[in-house]
């Protein structure tokens, strides 16, 4: 359903070789702690291998203590069906655990192709909600990769079980701007699953308005709450509701509320329809069993780079396939 976006994609130079750049100059923010250490050098290697320039950017509490709404706060949308459909392209990112580097590669490529702007809408489950938030608030690719490498190193050193939530929360507050909730409201649709003692016991819902930065961060953490993994609890509490990971319901690969939705999954060979995924247009270099391992346990830095590059490549493959098809429909 790319509705004539074949011409747009062609005009964005999709025939160019992988790694070629489409410049979109932005003012670069100074990275804290940037120095010449191994992580910085690794970040330079990543940027060099995929052609990211120095001025490039991407458009981008404990369990049971989720914040409530302040008195007099506006009614918040929970159901995607009630959300107005936006014109143009939008992107939905699947659940993915610690396969987040793949999504970072997707995001860099989508931005480089000029397919993300200040009005693009997103939907995300679990890790997919995190990358969607990064795109909404225009985090720069180098800043995001540097912090990602540091976060995964910390998880490798400290362990994951029962520790992931606090580490992710710390980095989320560190990298997101103070007005992220303003930037995200109306554009970011975070999938969570509400739990109930009555039927339906599990109900997939969306949050797309946010009262504060912490309210948004808590929504992302709730969407990412894999039972017994994030902090050893089965459920999370968000806005007074008992919830679990947004990918555990029907929105494992959420569809954004727009005229031309593009869905992205970080796992290969799943029985779900999606537009972009490992192995969709070319052979996936990593087995499904290994991808599942990386989703649960933080991969080493060389594998982070490989996942990142694979995410870039898969977007280019999708875009090239769509362009060659004349833009008459999304890749099947």
From TrEMBL:
Domain PNPLA: 91-259
Enzyme class: hydrolase
One CC-aspect GO term: lipid droplet
GO MF annotation terms: triacylglycerol lipase activity
Motif interval(s): GXSXG: 124-128
Top-level taxon: Eukaryota
Active-site annotation: 126 (nucleophile), 245 (proton acceptor)
Record GO biological process: lipid homeostasis; triglyceride catabolic process
Keyword terms, alphabetized: Hydrolase, Lipid degradation, Lipid metabolism
Coiled-coil region: none
One Pfam family named in its UniProt record: Patatin
Record has Lipid metabolism as a keyword: yes
EC number: 3.1.1.-
Short sequence motif DGA/G: positions: 245-247
Record's function text: Lipolytic acyl hydrolase (LAH).
Protein name: Patatin
